[in-house]
Automatic annotation (TrEMBL), chain A:
The keyword Membrane applies. PROSITE patterns: CYTC, TAT. It comes from Streptomyces achromogenes. Keywords: Cell membrane, Electron transport, Heme, Iron, Membrane, Metal-binding, Repeat, Respiratory chain, Signal, Translocase, Transmembrane, Transmembrane helix, Transport. Gene3D superfamilies: Cytochrome c-like domain. This is Cytochrome bc1 complex cytochrome c subunit. Its EC number is 7.1.1.8.
TrEMBL record, chain B:
InterPro entries: QcrA_N, Rieske_2Fe-2S, Rieske_2Fe-2S_sf, Rieske_Fe-S_prot. It comes from Streptomyces rubradiris (Streptomyces achromogenes subsp. rubradiris). It is found in: Cell membrane. Belongs to the Rieske iron-sulfur protein family. The keyword Hydrolase does not apply. It comes from the Bacteria. This is Cytochrome bc1 complex Rieske iron-sulfur subunit.
Amino acid sequence: MKKLSARRRHPLAAVVVLLLALAATGGLYAAFAPAGKAQADESSQSLTIKEGKKLYEVGCASCHGTGGQGSSDGPSLVGVGAAAVDFQVGTGRMPAATSQGAQVPRKKPTYTQAQIDQLAAYVASLGAGPSVPTKQQYGPDGADIAKGGELFRTNCAQCHNFTGKGGALTKGKFAPTLEGVAPKHIYEAMQTGPQNMPSFPDTTMSEKNKKDIIAYLNAVNGDKTENPGGLELGGLGPVSEGLFGWIFGLGTLIAVAVWVAARTAKAKKS
Amino acid sequence: MSSQDIPEENLPAEQDHAHGAVATADEENPFADPGLPPHEHRIQDIDERAAKRSERAVAFLFTVSMLATIGFIVSYLAIPNDKSIFVFPIGHLSAMNFALGLTLGVALFCIGAGAVHWARTLMSDVEIADDRHPIEASPEVRAKVHADFRQGAAESGFGRRKLIRNTMFGAMALVPLSGVMLLGGLGPAPKTKLRHTMWAKGKRLVNMNTGQPLRPEDVAVGSLTFAMPDGMSEHDEDFQNEIAKAALMIVRLQPDDIKDKRELDWSHQGVVAYSKICTHVGCPISLYEQQTHHVLCPCHQSTFDLTDGARVIFGPAGHALPQLRIGVDSEGYLQALGDFEEPVGPAFWERG
Amino acid sequence: MSTAPNEQSRSRGKAPAGERVADWADGRLGIYSLAKANMRKIFPDHWSFMLGEVCMYSFIIIILTGVYLTLFFHPSMNEVEYHGSYVPMQGQLMSEAFNSTLHISFDVRGGLLIRQIHHWGAVVFLAGMFVHMMRVFFTGAFRKPREVNWLFGFLLFVLGMFTGFTGYSLPDDLLSGTGVRIAEGLVLSVPIVGTYISFFLFGGEFPGHDFVARFYSIHILLLPGIMLGLMVAHLILVFYHKHTQFAGPGKTEKNVVGMPLLPVYMAKAGGFFFLVFGVLAVLAAVAQINPIWAMGPYRPDQVSTGAQPDWYMGFSEGFVRVMPGWEINVAGHTLVLGVLIPLIVFGLMLVSIAVYPFIESWITGDKREHHILDRPRNAPTRTALGVAWLTFFAMAMVGGGNDLWATHFHLSVNSVTYFVRIFLFAGPVIAYIVTKRICLGLQRRDREKVLHGRETGIIKRLPHGEFIEVHEPLSQEQLHTLTAHEQYTPAEIGPTVDENGVERKVPASQKLRAKLSNAYYGEHAQIPKPRAEEYKEITSGHGHH
C-alpha cells in the first residue's frame, strides 16, 4: 500500500484511475447489460469499432461473413489486421464488384478515410494483425534512395517493372502500376501481401528497407520525376521505343522522302 | 540449274517494241510505248518572280539553320547540365538535352530542306534517259579473258605439277588452325563448374534484404524472401558469377499443401528453398503468386508450381527448378544441408 | 610530262583554282574518267528509292555519334561505386561500363543527346533496312543482275542486328544484362559444343569479367568494319547496275529515266542526309530511349518484368517465348529442343530471305536482266509469299511482347501465347491466300480498265431509257503502263517419252520445278493481261460496253 500511496501524485495517476474506472464501469456494464447491447461503450475506440461493425455488416459481411470468418465468396479477415483493410478499401479494391476478372483492380474508393479507419478498427478487433503504418514509417525522412533502388530491383521489379509500371502475371492476373499509389498503401501492400502479391513482413524486410523502397519509387515514378531524355514512352522499355521509332522516326523520314522525290507542281498550260 | 528439260517457251517475249524512239499507237500495237512525255515547265521556269520567291525561301531556310547553330552554341554554354524544365506534353526533362537536340535538329533539317527545295524548284527538272548496257561482257571479251586465264594457268604449271598443287592446298588448309588454336585462350574449359554452387552443408541462408541469417519463424506463409549463402559479399571479385548460380528464393507453404514427397522432405516446417534461376535460359525467376503458389518467369513466362516440386506447368522451360535441401542449425538458423543436387539454370549438353 | 609547254602555261595562267585542283588530282587519281561516267548519272525519282538512303545516312550518323561515345565510355566490368550526379544511384556498386554510361548521360554536356541519337539512329537504321528490303522484294528488284547486291543487303541487315545487340549490351544495365543472359542460355542449348562456346564467349562462367570488353571490340570495330565494306560494295553495285525503275512511258529495260546526279541528286541526296540527321536529333530531343539509370546496374539475381530486346531481335524473342519446353535426356546428355528449335527457326527465317532470289530464278529459268520493276500485284505468288513471311514475323513479334499484350489489352498472357502458337502457322497460310486473291483482283481490275476504260462515275441515260456509266478510255501512257509487265507461262516437263517411244528420265528436281512454276504462273496464279487483239476487237465494236 505504501508503494501505491507514494505514486498517488504521479502526473499519470489521474489517467490510470480514470482508465481503471472506465474499465470497471464498462466491465460491469458488459456483465449486466443485456446481450446484443454490449457495444454501448463510451470509449472512442469501441465507438469506432462499433461504427466499423455497422459499415462492415452493410458492405462486407455478405462475402466475408458476419463475423469476418469468411465464406466461399471472400477470405477470412480474422488476423489480417488494420493495414490490410486500409489498403484494400483505401485503394478501392474492396468492396469488389460481384463479377470480377482474374483479380480485383484498383478503383476510386467508396468509403471516406474516416469510415475506412472505422472498418479497419473493427477488423483489427477480430484478431491481431499488422496495424496501419505511421507517416514516420513510410515518410521520406532518413531514407536511402539508392539502397531502396537495389531492394526494389531484388524484390519488386520482377513483377512491377524497373520503375513500377506494372506487368503481367499468369492467366490474366497482373502486377498493377505503382504510379499514383500513396506511400502508405505501398507500405501496407508490402506488409500484408494483397491478393497474389507475396508479403514482405518486417522479419524479412525491415521497416527501414520498406522506407527506402518507397523513397526510391517516389524518386523514379513520382509526380516530379524527371525523364531527362524526353518522353518516357510508358517506361516499358524497347517495345514502346521500337514502336515509336517506327512510327515517328521512320514514318517521318518516309514522309520527308515522299516530299524529296515528288514532282514539283507544273505551271498550268496556257 | 540446267533447264534443258524444260522448253524455253515459258519465258515471255522480249519487250522490245518501240524503245527509244517516240512511238504512237499504231494499228499493230495499241499498247506501244508512247515514249517520254514532253517536258512541262514549272511556274519557276517561266515566272522569274516565282523563282525569286523560291530563292528567298531557300535562303531563309539556310538562315534559320545558322541561327539554330548559334542557339546550339548558346545553349551548350549557358544551360546548367542538371537543369530540369517542364515541357507541356512531354513532362519534366533535361533542359540541356531538349535545347541541344532541337537546335541541332533544326540546324540540320533546314540545310536539308533548303537544298531539296532548291533542287525541286530551281534546278532543271527535265527528265533524262540514260542508256543501259548489258552487265555481261561481249563474247569477244569473254573469249579473251578465258584465253588469258588458260595461258596464265598453263604457264604456272598449276595443273601439271600436282605435287606443288596438293602440298599448297595442304598448307593453306592447315594454317588457319593456328588461328583456331589461339581462340582457345578465350576461356577455360567448362569442366564441372556449371554443376556446383556456393551452397554446401552447414551454410546459413542469409537474407538479401537485411544481410542477416534467416530463422524459420521469420518466414511467414505467403511471404517471399531471397537469400544467398553465408560468407558471400557484393564486394567479392566473383560475386556476380556466384550469385548467378546461388540465388535462392524462399517461401513458406502449409505442409499439407505440399504435394511432392521429396519437396516435403527437403523443406523445414513448410519453408522451401528453390533456385531463383530459371531452368529455361537463366532469368531470375521470382514472380511468386502467393495464392496459387505459382512462380512465373518475367522473360519467357515459364510457370512452375511450388507446391509440386516446382514442376513446369506452362511455358518453354524444360525441367523443374532445383530445390535446396534445408534444415536448421544448433542456433536455430536456416542452413543448407548440401549443394543443389542438379545443376541450376539453363540446360546444357553435358547436363544429362 | 607530255603536255605541250604552252598549253600548260595557259592553264596555269587562266584556269580557275578549282579546275587546277581537279587537273592536279586527275593527273594522279584519274578522277576524270570516273566523273565522266558518274557526274551526270541518272537516278529515277520515287520515294521508295530513298529508303536505302535512309539506311546509309543513319549508318553514317551512328558511326559519327558512336565515335563520340567511345571518347567517354569505359568498356570494363571492374566494379566501382557510383558517385556521379544521379541521386538514386549514389553509392551503388556497378561496372565501370555502367558507371561511364551514367557519366555520359548526366555529366557530359550533350552526352545524353548523342547517346540518344546513336540509339534512335540504330532503331531507325534497322527499320529502314527492313522496309528497304521489303521494297526490293515486292518489286522484284532482286532479279538478275542484282542477286549479289541482295545478298550484300541481307548481310548488312543481319550484321546490323548483331551490331545492335552487342551495342545495347555494352552499358551492362539490368535490362541488357538479362538479354545477354538469355543469349547465353541459347548458346548453352547448342548440342555438343554449346557449353564450350559459352565459356569461350564469356571467358568462363556467366557473366564473368570479359564480355563487355569483347562485345565492345565486336561492336565498334569488327561488325561495323565489315558493314562499312559491304555498304560501299552495295553502293558501287547500285551505281554499276544503274537504278531500277517502274514501268511507264519512255521507260524500257534498256534505259533509265530520271534526274542527273549533278546537280539535282547532289542536292536532293545530299540534302536528305541533313534531313535524316535533323529528324534523328529532334527525336533524341523529345523522346527518351534506353534510360539505363532507371534500370540499374546488372546483377544476375535481379530482373524486371517486360524484359524485351530492341525491335529487330523481337521475333527471335517471340520464338523463344511460345516454344513448348521440350527437353530430351539420353545417355547422360541433354538435347534442349525447347531452346534449340527457336534458335534454328531464327536462322532459317533469315536464310529464307537470302536464298529467295535464287529459288525464284531457278523456277522461272529466266536468265535475262530485269531493270523494270514489277508491281506487286503482277507477281501474286511472290507477293503472297512475302506477306506470309511478314505475317510469320509479325506473329513472332506478338509472341515476343505477349506480356505487354496481356497487360495493355486485359488478356491472359497464357491465352496470348496459345494464340501465337496457333497463328504462327495459321496466320501465314491465311495471309498467303488472302494476298493472292487481292493481287488477282487488282490484276482483273487493271485488265478491265485497259479494255473498257476508266469508270468516270457519270451516269448517262440513253434515248431508249437505258442507264449506262460512261467509261473514259485510257490514255496511251496508261495503256502502256498497265500492259508493260511480262507474264510467264508455267514450265512443263515435256513429253516423258521421246520420238522413238523410249521413256525419258525426268529428274525429280525438274518435276518439282514444273510444279512450282505452275503454282507461280499457272492458270489460277495470274490473270492473262489484255492482248492487243482483244483491245482492238472491243474498241472497234459499237461504242460502249
